[in-house]
């Protein structure tokens, strides 16, 4: 059998097309999540180590401007320019700030990530964004996707929002800035309680408590716990945990559920029908057909029990196992074969399942899991933030920049803030005037410059 | 001339164009129809106009992009502002939902409107019952397309909670009917678990799906076990039924070993002879039951059989469990 290889050149071509040409009209139903698609495109080219070669400085600046154009005046980002009104519409005419089309949680996450490929986080309105993030949390700890002018939190109860909220908070160093400067943070304990209550009787995690367990939501809950530093220590798992511990997120049960998502795949019995839509014949009782008695050349992954396999679930399941430190519990070769032989497309990219044309979402997640599994030609990958490890490092460095202490100096009766690592810091502090008497006239201070 | 431009009904509205600028990511080949409708939507939203023509416009926009997250909110506020009868909107939504199986905004929209009429509905038990029945009928129609549609099952939970259908015979029967159709429908199993173990009449409020709830009557645990055991007999290799059994045992605070005999019906391991295994899940179940009883050698043998012969696809996992078991032996 020929050796399987990821065709880097072909995938680069696919992603270059996504970057440089206009997407077909069929993508119109994704118009509200163009920021998500934009992130996938930039990040895929990064994982393929191509994006620096493909974008000129001018193009990077233009993309940066486009992303920032989607920043909402009240904090957060919009899903695309479709949702962003011209500036004059947001002006406060005496009834409070006008929200128009409110910022969207998913868009905000992907916009912040996308910015880090073409610039940095200095133009994200960090404090507005973190304050806005707090308004999205419900009393039960969960998050909505947007909040309307009258304060209603909209969007279903959905683990994805919890994941995104914790990732944004991590990137913007919300845990520290919120406490020190905003005097308020999201309610982490309630959120953790909500994440834990999502674990269902079969060990997987569902959209929220009591629904059916689902690989996407399982990933979201595990990754959120990692961002919050609340994942149980993987080295302390014992056999009896799975039989006795109901109070923490039960890792052995999650692992059992995750590895159960592997399904032997045989090209001939995939006719687009779900496995379970075929009624079991009377002989099924006695037959051992459904047992995995032989090694499968190809193994696919489903997202729920008894559902058909799908490319994206290779990521949701594989990345979850990686985060809990158990990547070695699945046999990666037949799964890799499934991706490379069955869902990789001849024009580049990956389809949802064999025979489907490639789409941006499945193409990205297939690359992502192959990168997690150290596919030659791809950068190593961070499973929780869903970007290359190098990019996570870059973002991490930008986080600490935000943490450099800011000091205040005075000039001509105004206050200015300056970071301690600013090259002008020493000079500015040395030349600073004494702070004016705060008990006196305060009108000067209301004009104080704040950066 | 478009659908709106030059149309006397829309004469007074100046559309707000999309400011795309340079460097747009994921640019889409919008149709002229789409661009025009969005421009008018932005204009009516800016003017905060809630009128019958806005209903037409939002319907049009939804037909072009059902995942537009704010058009749904704007439509809901328009319906409430105009006091439009909700049943008309539900009828329309039914069609849209059938055409957009993957869309989730429509379900939030539906629930916003149901929340709005609920206070009136609940004062008239017969009307409330009729409403819940109509919702069930619609969901049955959705299930004909896809009996595992996650959003529809989420809505079903919402309806059960809202109209307190936990004790409804019809609700339990309809789940049984779906499982009769397809005993592997894990969504239906999951809903059954919710129905039985979140029933406020006899469960502890806030009890997690993974923990023992002492308030649940023994008879209920017995009934659920019998149901799932029968299903496991029907299709021994159906993981849904086995997971359900484990879940029920945990809810009831019972040990796995209480069903050792039942699981043993699928697993015969005669001394020295050839074993006869009809379900890998039964073997997995027995491994845990034996480990629970401290019969670690037997548990280890079951895990070995799984990895080497009966569930080879998960060999690494079964080996890992054997390692954990050895940890327990020390
Ligand atoms: Zn998928």
From TrEMBL, chain A:
PANTHER family hit by this protein: GERANYLGERANYL TRANSFERASE TYPE BETA SUBUNIT, GERANYLGERANYL TRANSFERASE TYPE-1 SUBUNIT BETA
GO MF annotation terms: CAAX-protein geranylgeranyltransferase activity; metal ion binding
Name under which the protein is recorded: Prenyltransferase alpha-alpha toroid domain-containing protein
Domain Prenyltransferase alpha-alpha toroid: 6-387
Any Pfam family: Prenyltrans
Cofactors required: Zn(2+)
Record keywords, A-Z: Metal-binding, Prenyltransferase, Repeat, Transferase, Zinc
GO cellular component: CAAX-protein geranylgeranyltransferase complex
InterPro entries xrefs: PGGT1B-like, Prenyltrans, Terpenoid_cyclase/PrenylTrfase
Region described as Disordered: spans on this chain: 426-451
Biased composition (Polar residues): 441-451
Family: Belongs to the protein prenyltransferase subunit beta family.
Coiled-coil parts of chain: none
From TrEMBL, chain B:
GO cellular component: CAAX-protein geranylgeranyltransferase complex; protein farnesyltransferase complex
Cofactor dependency: Mg(2+)
Keyword ATP-binding recorded: no
Primary enzyme class: transferase
EC number: 2.5.1.58, 2.5.1.59
PROSITE patterns xref list: PFTA
Repeat among keywords: yes
UniProt keywords, alphabetically: Magnesium, Prenyltransferase, Repeat, Transferase
Superkingdom assignment: Eukaryota
InterPro entries in the cross-refs: Prenyl_trans_a
Pfam family, any one: PPTA
A GO molecular-function descriptor: protein farnesyltransferase activity
Family: Belongs to the protein prenyltransferase subunit alpha family.
PANTHER family linked to this entry: PROTEIN FARNESYLTRANSFERASE ALPHA SUBUNIT/RAB GERANYLGERANYL TRANSFERASE ALPHA SUBUNIT (PTHR11129), PROTEIN FARNESYLTRANSFERASE_GERANYLGERANYLTRANSFERASE TYPE-1 SUBUNIT ALPHA (PTHR11129:SF1)
Protein name, UniProt field: Protein farnesyltransferase/geranylgeranyltransferase type-1 subunit alpha
Organism: Oidiodendron maius (strain Zn)
Native organism taxonomy: Eukaryota, Fungi, Dikarya, Ascomycota, Pezizomycotina
């Amino acid at each position: 059998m020929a050796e399987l290889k990821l065709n880097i050149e072909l995938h680069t071509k696919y992603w270059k097309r996504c970057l440089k040409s206009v997407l077909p009209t069929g993508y119109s139903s994704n118009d509200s999540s163009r920021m998500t698609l934009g992130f996938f495109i930039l990040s895929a080219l990064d994982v393929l180590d191509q994006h620096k070669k493909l974008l000129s400085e001018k193009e990077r600046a233009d993309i940066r401007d486009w992303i920032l154009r989607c920043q909402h005046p009240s904090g957060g980002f919009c899903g695309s320019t479709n949702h962003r009104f011209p500036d004059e519409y947001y002006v406060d005419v005496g009834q409070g700030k006008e929200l128009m089309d409110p910022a969207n949680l998913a868009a905000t996450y992907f916009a912040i990530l996308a910015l880090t490929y073409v610039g940095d986080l200095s133009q994200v309105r960090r404090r507005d964004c973190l304050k806005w993030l707090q308004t999205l949390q419900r009393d039960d700890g969960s998050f909505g996707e947007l909040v309307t002018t009258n304060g209603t939190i909209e969007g279903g109860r959905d683990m994805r929002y919890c994941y995104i909220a914790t990732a944004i908070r991590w990137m913007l160093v919300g845990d520290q800035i919120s406490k020190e400067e905003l005097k308020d943070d999201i309610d982490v304990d309630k959120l953790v309680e909500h994440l834990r209550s999502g674990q269902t009787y079969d060990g997987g995690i569902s959209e929220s408590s009591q629904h059916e367990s689902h690989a996407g939501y399982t990933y979201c809950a595990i990754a959120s716990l990692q961002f919050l530093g609340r994942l149980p220590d993987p080295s302390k798992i014992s056999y009896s945990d799975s039989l006795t511990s109901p109070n923490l997120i039960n890792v052995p049960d999650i692992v059992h559920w995750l590895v159960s998502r592997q399904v032997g795949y045989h090209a001939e019995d995939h006719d687009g029908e779900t496995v379970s839509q075929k009624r079991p014949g009377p002989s099924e009782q006695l037959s051992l057909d459904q047992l995995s008695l032989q090694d499968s050349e190809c193994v696919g992954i489903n997202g729920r029990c008894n559902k058909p396999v799908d490319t994206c679930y290779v990521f949701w399941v594989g990345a979850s196992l990686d985060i809990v430190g158990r990547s070695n519990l699945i046999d990666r070769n037949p799964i890799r074969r499934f991706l490379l032989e069955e869902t990789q497309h001849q024009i580049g990219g990956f389809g949802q399942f064999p025979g489907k044309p490639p789409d941006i979402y499945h193409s990205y997640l297939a690359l992502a899991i192959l990168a997690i599994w150290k596919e030659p030609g791809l950068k190593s990958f961070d499973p929780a933030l869903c970007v290359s490890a190098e990019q996570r490092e870059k973002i991490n460095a930008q986080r600490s920049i935000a943490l450099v202490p800011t000091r205040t100096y005075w000039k001509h009766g105004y206050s200015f803030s300056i970071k301690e690592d600013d090259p002008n810091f020493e000079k500015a502090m040395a030349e600073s005037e004494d702070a004016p008497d705060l008990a006196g006239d305060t009108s000067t201070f209301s004009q104080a410059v704040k950066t | 001339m478009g659908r709106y431009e030059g149309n006397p009904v829309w004469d007074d509205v100046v559309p707000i164009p999309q400011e795309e600028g340079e460097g747009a990511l994921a640019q889409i080949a919008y149709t002229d129809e789409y661009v025009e409708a969005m421009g008018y939507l932005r204009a009516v939203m800016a003017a905060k106009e809630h009128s019958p023509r806005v209903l037409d416009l939002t319907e049009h926009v939804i037909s072009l992009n059902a995942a537009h997250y704010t058009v749904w909110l704007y439509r809901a506020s328009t319906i409430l502002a105009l006091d439009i009868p909700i049943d008309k909107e539900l009828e329309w939504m039914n069609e849209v939902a059938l055409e957009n199986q993957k869309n989730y905004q429509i379900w939030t929209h539906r629930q916003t409107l149901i929340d709005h009429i609920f206070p009136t509905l609940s004062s008239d038990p017969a009307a409330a019952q009729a409403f819940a029945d109509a919702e069930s009928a619609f969901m049955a129609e959705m299930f004909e397309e896809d009996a595992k549609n996650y959003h529809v099952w989420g809505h079903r939970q919402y309806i059960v909670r809202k109209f307190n259908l936990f004790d409804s015979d019809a609700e339990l029967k309809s789940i049984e009917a779906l499982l009769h159709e397809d005993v592997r429908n894990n969504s239906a199993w999951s809903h059954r678990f919710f129905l039985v173990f979140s029933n406020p009449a006899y469960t502890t409020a806030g009890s997690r799906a993974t923990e023992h709830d002492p308030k649940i009557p023994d008879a209920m645990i017995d009934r659920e076990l019998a149901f799932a055991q029968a299903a496991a007999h029907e299709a021994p290799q159906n993981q849904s039924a086995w997971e359900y059994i484990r879940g029920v045992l945990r809810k009831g605070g019972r040990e796995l070993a209480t069903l050792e005999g039942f699981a043993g019906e699928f697993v015969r391991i005669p001394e020295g002879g050839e074993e006869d295994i009809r379900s890998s899940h039964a073997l997995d179940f027995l491994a845990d039951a034996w480990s629970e009883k401290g019969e670690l050698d037997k548990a280890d043998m079951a895990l070995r059989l799984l990895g080497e012969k009966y569930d080879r696809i998960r060999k690494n996992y079964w080996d890992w469990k054997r390692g954990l078991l050895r940890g327990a032996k020390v």
